[in-house]
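Sample intake sheet
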Amino acid sequence: INSLCIDWTRIIMDKATTKLSPHIKLSTSLVDLPRVGLGTFKLAGTEVTSSVSRALDIGYRHIDTAVIYKNEELITSALKQHGIAREDVFITSKISPYQQGAERARAAALEVLQRLDSSYVDLLLIHWPGASKKKATDPANAQLRLESWRVLEELYEQGKLKAIGVSNYEESHLKELASQAKIMPMVNQVEVHPQRPNTRLRQLCQDMGIAVVAYASLGCGHLLQNPVVLDVAQQTGKSPAQVLLRWGLQKGCAVIPKAANSGHLIAADELLTWELPSDLEARLDGLEDGTKYCWDPSGIA
């Protein structure tokens, strides 16, 4: 595992400036993961175009999408309209639970390339450890996700995927994959916020050299009105969203905030250039109660 470890010196704050480096070095990959990205879940139509354009203007260089979001082509169009070079943007996509298994996963990955009008994807993830229309306890889930992983390994070796990883994988899923993988996953994208910090899972990822991308950093909006979050925001002179995203960054995660109103997006530098004091970080840590706002993969065999 040591040979696969993330270069953690790349994600430690410069104590003199309190600024985090803008990238995380991914294990066994030649690409760096931008620490702050644009999430596009549930964004459609002009929301996609305006959000992508605004995000690029304020320093974002990572766009997170998925097959199931049905907006990859809109993102491609928005990038072309903006005029930014393809190599200057890091794009993450994900194959869906409907596309698990060797044949479907291969077709899905190649279709992603077509929709992004690109010869490569910077990062492709398996979106979910289960397969559609399979019961959570069905052992076929494990076989199908392994077949999907073999496809990702193959396309990575061919250079069509610059990095590969998983999403919503619990400890059991990661340990199973580690025992079978020819190439270890470089990323695990999971729900992480103060109410559900996923500490054990994040530690396992660190031990395995897997970078963590946090989604639902704002608790799907519920944490924005939390009294503790509001008080920390007041004490730091930051917005509740800035506080919650910075908390995730200080836990070593990359974050992928989204905003249907592009004017609400927070500039990347506004998240990277200040530090949440340890006592206030601890207050946010105290919110942990296990609350999960998104899907629960823990029961998937």
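Comment: Residues 140-157 form the longest helix (18 residues). The longest strand covers residues 90-95.
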